Amino acid sequence: MIPVRRFKENPLITPKDIVPSTPGVRVLGAFNPGAFVWNYEMCMLVRVSEAPIPPDPDTVIAPYFDFSSGERQLKSWTFSRKDPAYDFSDTRLVKSRDRTWITSASHLRIARSKDGIHFKVDDKPTLWPANEYENLGIEDPRVVYLEDRYLITFSAISRDHGVCSNLVTTQDWKTFEHRGVLFVPDNKDICIFPARVKDRYIALHRPSTSMLGMPNLWIAESDDLVHWGRHECLLKVRPGQWDSARVGCGPAPILTDEGWLAFYHGSDNTNYYMGAVLLDRDNPYRVIARSEDPIFQPVELYEKEGFFANVVFCNGLIESWGGRVFLYYGAADMCCAGVEVKVKDVLDDLLKR
Amino acid sequence: MIPVRRFKENPLITPKDIVPSTPGVRVLGAFNPGAFVWNYEMCMLVRVSEAPIPPDPDTVIAPYFDFSSGERQLKSWTFSRKDPAYDFSDTRLVKSRDRTWITSASHLRIARSKDGIHFKVDDKPTLWPANEYENLGIEDPRVVYLEDRYLITFSAISRDHGVCSNLVTTQDWKTFEHRGVLFVPDNKDICIFPARVKDRYIALHRPSTSMLGMPNLWIAESDDLVHWGRHECLLKVRPGQWDSARVGCGPAPILTDEGWLAFYHGSDNTNYYMGAVLLDRDNPYRVIARSEDPIFQPVELYEKEGFFANVVFCNGLIESWGGRVFLYYGAADMCCAGVEVKVKDVLDDLLKR
Asked: What's the complex ipTM?
C-alpha cells in the first residue's frame, strides 16, 4: 500500500463555496479540477456544474446553451418525475427510450490558493461553453504549462455531436484562444504532456465506443498541437481488476528518473479509483509498469456520497517539495479534494522495489 | 429527378462469384466496393464478408482473427439460435444483454474489368485484416490516387477497440504500407480528397457517438496524411428527411467547375440512400449545396433484398467520358452494382439550375 495523505481540510471546495453563474441557477457540483501554478498561486480550474432551480421537487430541468443568436443563451428542457416515459435513476441523466438529456451544464472556474489547501473560488466563470460543440457544457479540464502558454484540454458535451476533446490556450488567464476539436466524438479525458518527446507533442485520450470495444486509454502525437496522429491503444481495461470497466488519463504526466509517470482513473462499475502507469521517457508508447492495485479509492464520506457516489477522479496535479505531488480530485462528482503522495513511493510500487 | 442509369448487367458481382478465402468458410457478401483505375483496367476493391459454414441451421458462428501468435488465425464463437440469452434479429449481429458479436468477417479483394461492367474477381484476398485493430474485419474501402500512390481507407472492426478508420497505401497493388489508425473509435466512412486544397490534405469521416449526438459527417485536414486536425462537423442529419438517421461520405469527391462534388449516403432507418453535396473548391469546409432528394435509392430486387435489406451504399467512383461518372455501390449488403450519372445533372439539381 502506498502512503497517501488526504488533506485534513478535505473537501477543499464544495458547491456551497460557489457563487452561481446566472440568476435562477443553483450549483450542483464543484469537482474534477485541473491544477496549475499561476502568478505565485496554486490554482485549480474547477468544473462547476449547474442547473436551473426547479419549481418543485417533482420537476427535473436539463439545461443547454443556445448559440443560434450568436450569443450564448441558457435554455432548458423540463421533465416531470411522474412521467413514466422517462428514466431518472441516474442523477446525472434523464433518459427516454431513444434519447438522453443531461441534468446539469458545466463551466470552468479558477480557485486560487497560497498553500494548495485553502482555496478562494472566483465569483465568475473563467471559461464558458463557447460553441455548438460545447452546448451541454465543458467538463474535466486538464491544465498543463507548455512552451510559454497554458493548455487547457477538456470534454466538450454537445447535443448534436456527443462528447469530444477540445483545446483552449491562454497566457494570462484572461484571454483564451479556442483551438477547436482535437479528438472527435466520443472522446474524453485528454491530457497533453508538459514537454515534447523527441520533438513531438504527446497526448493521452480516451475514445468511447458504442457496440463493440471497451473504453480504453489511447496515446497520440502531434507536431503542432492541432493535427494528431499515430493513435494507438496504450492501456486496456483489465477484466476482473479495479480497472475492468473503463480507464482514462488523470492529469498531465510528470517526468521522473524512471520515465513518464501518469496517474489514471479506472472503474469496475462500482467505484472510480486512481492508479498510475509508467511510460518510457523516450518512447511513451511503451508501458514500463502499471499499478496492480489502486493508489487511492473512495473511502471518506465525501467520496462515497455525493451527486454520483463512490468516485475519486483526479485530473489535477501540482508538484510540491521533497519529491511530493499534490493530487487534486473530484469526490463523488460533487466536491474538490486533495491528497499528497511521494513520487518515489509510487515508483517503488510500480517497479516492485 | 436526376437521370440515373443502372447498369443492365446489375448486380455486377454476387457472392457466387467469389472463391472463399479459407477452407470451411462461405461467402455471405461481396459489396460496398471502392473503385479505381489500375494498369489500364477499371477495378473495384470489394468488401468480401465470410463466415465459417455452420454445421446446422440452428447454429450461428461469429468469426474473428487472432493475432496473439504473431500470425493471423481464423477463430470463432458459436451460438445456438435456440438460446434465449441471444438476440439474432439483425442478421449482421448476435447480441446478448451486454455484448455484441459480428456474424461475418470481411477482407478486401480486387475485381478487374476492361469496361467497368464485366468484372473478374481475384481468387485470393488483396488485403487481409492485419492487426488487433482489425480483428473482426476490414470494411467499406475508399480508394483514391494521390501523389504517386493509391490510398485505401477503410473501417477497421475490433473486438477490443470498436470501429476505427485506418489507412493503407500501395503503389503496385502487391505490397501495402499500413499507416495505422487515422481516426479513433468509433469512426467509419472515411475518404481522402484526390488532391490537396491549399496545400492541405482533406478527409471526410464519420464519428459515431453513444449516448448523445447523431452520426453526422465531419471534415478534417492534414499536412502528412497521418496527423489530422481542424475537425468540424460538415453535414448534420436532417430530421424528417431521407438522411435523418445517419450520414456518411461516399467515394472521394471529384473536382468540378462548381467545386468539390461529394456523393454521400444517408439513412432514415428504413433505407440507405445516395445523395450529394457540393463543397467550396478552395475551402471544402464550406457547403455550397446539398441534395434535397436522394439521387438514387433501393428500387431493384437486389437492392431491396439481401443480407441487410433496402440498402444502396456507394463508396466507389470512376470518372467516365462525356462528363459521366460510374458509381459503384453495395446493394443490400450482398452484391456490387453500378449506375451511371452525368455530373452536370447532379450539379444542376444541387444548384437548382
From this structure: 0.94
